[in-house]
Amino acid sequence: xxxxxxxxxxxxxxxxxxxxxxxxxxxxxxxxxxxxxxxxxxxxxxxxxxxxxxxxxxxxxxxxxxxxxxxxxxxxxxxxxxxxxxxxxxxxxxxxxxxxxxxxxxxxxxxxxxxxxxxxxxxxxxxxxxxxxxxxxxxxxxxxxxxxxxxxxxxxxxxxxxxxxxxxxxxxxxxxxxxxxxxxxxxxxxxxxxxxxxxxxxxxxxxxxxxxxxxxxxxxxxxxxxxxxxxxxxxxxxxxxxxxxxxxxxxxxxxxxxxxxxxxxxxxxxxxxxxxxxxxxxxxxxxxxxxxxxxxxxxxxxxxxxxxxxxxxxxxxxxxxxxxxxxxxxxxxxxxxxxxxxxxxxxxxxxxxxxxxxxxxxxxxxxxxxxxxxxxxxxxxxxxxxxxxxxxxxxxxxxxxxxxxxxxxxxxxxxxxxxxxxxxxxxxxxxxxxxxxxxxxxxxxxxxxxxxxxxxxxxxxxxxxxxxxxxxxxxxxxxxxxxxxxxxxxxxxxxx
Length: 496
Description:
Elements: E1 4-7, E2 10-13, H1 15-21, H2 43-54, H3 57-68, H4 73-101, H5 105-113, H6 119-151, H7 160-177, H8 180-209, H9 212-215, H10 225-242, H11 244-249, H12 251-254, H13 260-293, H14 300-304, H15 309-331, H16 333-342, H17 349-362, H18 365-368, H19 372-401, H20 426-442, H21 449-453, H22 455-470, H23 480-486, E3 487-489
Parallel strand pairs: 1-3
Antiparallel strand pairs: 1-2
């Protein structure tokens, strides 16, 4: 029986396939494979998604933070661009699965961890997403607080910072609650506005500082290559880890792509370029404030606070828009889907969004952002070490083990082939634990700290290799003949 159909590289369930699993406890409207009609996202939608996510206060802070660690402007920008070019590789590899089979990240994880084991990578990604959600709300709330104080007598209000934070947090949860389609529409019109506002800030800095020379003349604080590398490798891991979360749950968005070409072109053209562009603006504007005000202002809200009331008002709207477009797309969809996947018949995406918002408060973003060391070494470095091995397993399973052949209905069966024996794929768990353990142990062994400094990359490669070796003869692997027996093939058209 043909339970799935493939047309122009997109696989969907047939009516027979849907009937087989629609009553399964692992199936609901949010987790089911997308239909052909739902594959509507174009290259522009993916480009606008990334532009909206990259233009945010954490991007600005990361670039500024690298300067504070001793890099000059071009060292900081190149480190960020290199990190984003590296993380783009797993993003595109995992995007292929989401686009071809229309499945969200928690369902994709069932393929390699098992029907129950999928909760491990889904919840891990969800917790980190919730942490980022809180960080962005704190950034945005603090910025709004600063701008309100510059316009009104807001500073006299007791607990004004916390009021701004919780108000902004509620706004983010409300927007996220409305779902991925609302996110798509918001990103589409927000992206060009954010680009224009960023350029306006750069032009202001360039004009006030008297040209590029005074802005970008600060030298690197490193006198030797070894001094630079001590900071470069953990900074590079931090730049990679910045979007390592999206490298995992990018199927949540790519399941709506019109084609593989649409998602590849849209993402490749926007992620490294926008991160490099906005990081440069962060460095240039902060450097310009040294010339203009005699001190480096790394907080964009502090810069805007020195403008006219009307400019402050526009800047506040820009900060709200920049933070919203990042937060609801990058940081709430994954935890909401992870919560939904825990009990698909009882929990919805909307309930997951609310729960994820509450969890973000429990993770205390104010502590993570207390100093830049917490941000790049404790937060980015640690979760990069945790997510790298999961990324490696996902890539190995889809590309090297299964060779892009999936039996969709089996993903929604509690006793299906991807449930393995107990609901857990023990080989994935072992591959993940080994990939995490080696960098963590190396952190405390003299001479091996460089492994920890590159924990995401090394963990990914270790888990990828171990998982591929352990799964090479697994009974759940479909041969080409097996795949053809369950998949009806439509004639390819030039539109694909």
